[in-house]
Specification:
Elements lengths: L1 E11 L2 E11 L8 E6 L2 H9 L3 E4 L5 E10 L3 E7 L5
Antiparallel strand pairs: 1-2, 1-4, 2-3, 3-6, 4-5, 5-6
Length: 87
Amino acid sequence: MSTYKGLATFLVDGVGNATEAELQASASGDGRSWSGWIEASPDIFWKAYRGEELRLRMPDGREGRVVVSDVDPTGFLKVTGGGPAPF
């Protein structure tokens, strides 16, 4: 299992929002299963809720498409990635 904990950019319809991420990728299956939590202010939460394209960009520029799969009331969004993990 691959993991990442650190800075990331949460892109909502191409607009970047700085965030902290804690992500993990599954070592089984097709290698395209990854998920985790990102820190999100209420403003970012509402942008994500209304956004059509959500992506997560790592500091090295790699990106992955995500969907919000859960919300934690303490300010975190659970994201599930599509495609290869960008970390």
